[in-house]
Backbone:
C-alpha cells in the first residue's frame, strides 16, 4: 500500500512537471554558446561577420538557389545587416569591424528557445566580386559545458556578379571599387562554390587583384563552445 | 566445371538474390560555378571492388567516362560484379549548382559506394568517390567530393569535340563560355596515374591564346560535389 501511494505521488509529480513544460512552450534552460571565427586566408579581409540562431526551416542561402537580395548585398558589398533583419527577434550578432587575415573574433549567442538550435554565420571576402564564406544552418551539436565543435568553411559564389576582377568592381582595399549593384550578370545565376581568384599575376592581365589575393579552401575556422 | 562447384555457385547466387535490400536516399549536388557533370554513375558494390583507385592507371572504361562522359563500359563492368547501379540519375548533364535526389536499393553484400562523372569542360577530369563504406546506422551523412584527373589525356584545354578515348581535346563547354583556336596549354602529362586534378588554367582570349577555357569561369577549388546519404 505504501509502495502504491508513493508511485501515485511520483506520477502526479511527473504530470505536474509535464504541464509546466507544456505551459512554458518550448523554453529550456538558457543555452549559451561562445563562437570564435578565425580568418585563414592570406589577404582577404572578411566583412563584419553576422551570426544568427534560428529554426529548422531557414537559411541564409542554399546551393543551387538564386540568392536573396539580402545575400547579394552582403556578398557584393559586405553588409550583412539585411540577413539579420530577416529574423530580427532571433539571437544574433554583427561584428563592428572586418575580420582581417590571421585574426580571430569571439562573441556569445544565447537562447532559451529549444527550437533555435540552428546556427548560420557569414561574411564576404571583400577583395572579390561576390565571394563569401561561412556556415549555413548547421544543427548545433549536443555539447557539455566547455566542450567545442570545430568547423572549416568553404567559399561560395553568390552567382549575382560576374567574377571580372576588373578595376572598380571590388569593394575591398585591393581595389576600393563598387560594392552592391542590383544588376545580375553572372554566368551561373545560382549560389555555388567559388572557383577562386585568377589575378593579374596568373595571366588575367586586366585583373585589379594580385596573386596575394588568392585563397584556397577552407577560408574560415569556426569554433563553437558551450558555456 | 564439376557439379559440386556449379551447385555452390547456384547457392551463392540464391543467397545474394535473397539478401535483404537496404534503401538509401541519395542527394547529390554539383558545387562548381562553371562546370557541368556528364551522366553520373552511382554504384553500391562489395568492399573489395573499385571503379578507380588513386595512384593507379585508369581502366579503359574509366578513361571513356573521364574523356568523353561515356559510362556504358563502367555500367557493364559493374553489372558483371552483381553491383547495384544507378546510371544517369540526373537524366543528362548536371548544371552548376544543380542537385538531384533519388533512391538506391542495395543488396546486403554491396556495402560500399562509388561515384564517377566527367567534369565538363576538362580533358579528363572527373568527380569521383572510390569505395566509401556506406554507414549502416540510420541517419544523415554528408560527404564532399574532389575533382580527379584520370591521367589518360594531356590537359591541353583545347575544345575541339574530342571525346573518344585517346583523342586529344575537350568535347564542349555546355555553358558556352569557351573560346576557340587555342594553341594548347601543354603537350605532356607526366603523371599517367589517377590523381587529384590540379585545376585548369584558362585565359580570356576567345579566338586564340593557349586555352579555350575561360580562367574566370571554368576554374574550381575543391570540393566539386556534395553527397548526402540518408540511411533508413
Residues:
Amino acid at each position: 500500500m505504501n509502495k502504491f501511494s508513493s508511485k501515485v505521488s511520483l506520477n502526479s509529480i511527473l504530470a505536474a512537471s509535464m504541464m509546466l513544460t507544456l505551459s512554458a512552450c518550448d523554453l529550456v534552460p538558457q543555452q549559451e554558446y561562445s563562437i570564435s571565427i578565425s580568418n585563414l586566408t592570406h589577404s582577404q579581409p572578411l566583412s563584419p561577420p553576422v551570426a544568427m540562431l534560428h529554426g529548422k526551416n531557414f537559411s541564409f542561402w542554399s546551393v543551387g538557389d538564386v540568392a536573396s537580395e539580402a545575400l547579394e548585398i552582403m556578398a557584393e558589398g559586405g553588409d550583412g545587416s539585411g540577413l539579420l533583419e530577416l529574423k530580427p527577434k532571433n539571437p544574433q550578432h554583427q561584428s563592428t569591424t572586418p575580420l582581417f587575415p590571421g585574426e580571430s573574433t569571439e562573441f556569445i549567442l544565447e537562447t532559451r528557445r529549444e527550437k533555435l538550435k540552428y546556427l548560420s554565420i557569414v561574411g564576404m571576402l571583400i577583395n572579390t566580386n561576390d565571394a563569401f564564406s561561412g556556415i549555413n544552418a548547421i544543427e548545433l551539436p549536443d555539447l557539455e559545458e566547455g566542450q567545442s565543435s570545430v568547423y572549416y568553411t568553404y567559399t561560395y559564389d553568390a552567382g549575382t556578379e560576374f567574377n571580372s576582377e576588373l578595376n572598380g568592381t571590388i569593394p575591398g582595399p585591393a581595389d576600393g571599387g563598387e560594392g552592391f549593384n542590383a544588376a545580375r550578370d553572372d554566368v551561373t545565376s545560382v549560389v555555388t562554390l567559388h572557383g577562386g581568384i585568377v589575378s593579374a599575376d596568373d595571366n588575367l592581365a586586366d585583373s585589379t587583384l594580385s596573386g596575394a589575393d588568392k585563397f584556397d579552401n577552407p577560408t574560415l575556422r569556426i569554433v563553437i563552445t558551450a558555456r | 566445371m564439376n557439379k559440386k562447384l556449379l551447385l555452390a555457385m547456384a547457392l551463392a547466387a540464391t543467397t545474394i538474390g535473397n539478401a535483404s535490400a537496404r534503401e538509401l536516399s541519395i542527394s547529390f549536388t554539383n558545387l562548381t560555378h562553371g562546370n557541368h557533370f556528364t551522366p553520373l554513375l552511382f554504384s553500391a558494390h562489395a568492399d573489395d571492388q573499385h571503379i578507380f583507385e588513386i595512384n593507379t592507371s585508369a581502366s579503359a572504361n574509366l578513361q571513356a567516362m573521364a574523356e568523353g562522359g561515356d559510362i556504358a563500359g563502367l555500367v557493364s563492368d559493374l553489372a558483371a560484379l552483381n553491383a547495384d547501379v544507378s546510371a544517369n540519375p540526373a537524366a543528362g548533364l548536371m548544371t552548376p549548382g544543380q542537385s538531384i535526389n533519388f533512391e538506391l536499393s542495395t543488396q546486403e553484400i554491396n556495402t560500399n559506394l562509388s561515384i564517377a562523372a566527367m567534369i565538363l569542360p576538362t580533358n579528363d577530369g572527373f568527380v569521383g568517390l572510390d569505395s566509401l563504406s556506406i554507414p549502416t546506422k540510420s541517419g544523415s551523412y554528408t560527404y564532399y567530393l574532389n575533382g580527379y584527373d584520370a591521367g589518360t589525356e594531356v590537359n591541353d584545354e583545347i575544345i575541339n569535340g574530342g571525346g573518344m578515348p585517346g583523342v586529344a581535346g575537350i568535347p564542349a563547354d555546355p555553358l558556352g563560355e569557351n573560346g576557340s583556336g587555342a594553341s594548347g596549354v601543354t603537350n605532356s602529362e607526366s603523371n599517367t596515374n589517377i590523381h587529384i586534378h590540379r585545376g585548369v588554367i584558362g585565359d580570356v582570349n576567345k579566338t586564340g591564346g593557349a586555352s579555350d577555357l575561360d580562367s574566370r569561369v571554368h576554374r574550381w577549388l575543391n570540393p566539386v560535389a556534395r553527397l548526402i546519404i540518408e540511411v533508413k
